[in-house]
Design brief:
Elements (H helix, E strand, L loop, with lengths): L9 H5 L12 E11 L19 H14 L2 H15 L3 E5 L3 E5 L15 E5 H11 L4 E16 L7 E14 L3 E9 L4 E5 L2 E5 L2 E9 L2 E9 L7 H17 L4 E6 L9 H6 L4 E2 L27 E6 L3 E8 L17 E10 L1
Parallel strand pairs: 1-2, 11-12
Antiparallel strand pairs: 1-16, 2-6, 3-4, 3-6, 5-6, 7-10, 8-9, 10-11, 12-14, 13-14, 15-16
Helix pairs in contact: 3-4
Length: 352
């Protein structure tokens, strides 16, 4: 793969002997972290198009669900798991960790006593964890932030109807040998509400954090997925502002990863807000992480913006940073593993 590699050890590390600081008072710790948006498998915003208004929403939902099925979630999660196993990060922040349910016949119809669909068709977290096990990679879930949970009726023929339910989550994984504690999950107060098929839907997003220890070095790890840009950017900017309070209240070193939906290569507003308390592990203009076509079948990469990030505070330097799953050779069955590339970085610190 043609991946970005940044040798950013700098002059400060030249003063260190292997495993010791310049004063001989500590040992060097290396923390490797990763962020990956799993991609829900289709474009939810197609449901907002004019042809999906009114009664037509049930046809659009069925078409969207068909796109999700065609995205082959199991194969995609296996490809992402293989990359996680190769990179071998201490901690991983995941976004768009989706679960889909169906119910047939539908009861989520006007005037009906609707009940939640419970038949699981695709559980991205289960698929990913099973694939990690198959890779021999020892990871465990240490934090789950449950976000949006929406359900709509669907039809492919106009006569029979079934319900499709979508749950979104963000997840933090830790490698088996990494000690973690104090998991925190918090929804944002600023949320996007839009009409979908004549019904207002609020899309819940949030952030997570855990305390972690790697090589005797203690730090806090944050993961988030901010609202999209465009007309929803004001909500995204408010969510970025909300993050400053918990970040500011966190003592000691911090690593922050996630999909912030704000272009780091163009100094997007939310990117600027979040880099006030942090350093960026990637050089501006050095990488692109978003986005492939909605059906994931584009042959040439369409990545243009950098919205997937690794930020840090309280570390001495960046040893290496890399963009992954961004080359045509990474595709499985003609599909990109996600519409986002993944990012990982090694952060160097001295344990006193």
């Amino acid at each position: 793969m043609n991946r970005l590699r940044l040798a950013l050890c700098g002059l400060a590390l030249l003063t260190l002997t292997a495993g010791c600081d310049s004063d001989g008072g500590g040992t060097e710790a290396t923390v490797r972290v990763m962020s990956q948006n799993l991609y829900l498998g289709g474009d939810l915003f197609t449901l907002l198009e004019p042809q999906c208004e009114g009664n037509a929403i049930v046809v659009c939902v069925a078409q969207l669900y068909g796109t999700i099925e065609a995205s082959d979630p199991a194969a995609r999660m296996a490809a992402i798991a293989a990359e996680i196993a190769r990179v071998d990060p201490d901690l991983v922040g995941l976004q768009e960790v989706s679960t889909y349910y169906v119910q047939s016949p539908a009861d989520n119809l006007p005037g009906g006593p609707a009940t939640d669909a419970t038949q699981v068709t695709y559980d991205f977290l289960d698929l990913l964890m099973d694939a990690l096990d198959a890779e021999g990679a020892d990871y465990r879930v240490v934090s789950v932030s449950n976000n949006s949970d929406v359900e709509f009726p669907a039809t492919t023929n106009g006569n029979t109807f079934f319900d499709v339910r979508y749950q979104d989550a963000d997840v933090i994984l830790a490698r088996g040998d990494v000690t973690t504690s104090a998991p925190t999950e918090q929804s944002f107060q600023s949320l996007l509400t839009i009409p979908v098929g004549g019904t207002n839907q609020t899309f819940v997003r949030g952030y997570q954090s855990v305390r972690a220890t790697v090589g005797g070095f203690d730090f806090t790890f944050f993961n988030t997925h901010l609202e999209v840009g465009g007309q929803a950017e004001p909500i995204q900017v408010l969510q970025a502002g909300e993050l400053l309070a918990p970040i500011g209240a966190t003592t000691g070193p911090v690593v922050f990863v996630g999909d912030i939906n704000s272009n780091g290569n163009a100094n997007g507003t939310s990117y600027q807000t979040l880099t006030v308390p942090f350093e960026d592990a990637f050089a501006v203009g050095s990488a692109a992480t978003c986005c492939q076509a909605a059906d994931l079948r584009n042959a040439a990469s369409q990545l243009q913006t950098r919205i997937d990030v690794v930020f840090y505070r309280g570390f001495d330097s960046v040893g290496e940073a890399e963009v992954v799953l961004d080359e045509p050779s990474d595709r499985v069955g003609g599909l990109w593993p996600s519409d986002h590339a993944g990012v990982w970085a090694e952060l160097e610190a001295v344990v006193q």
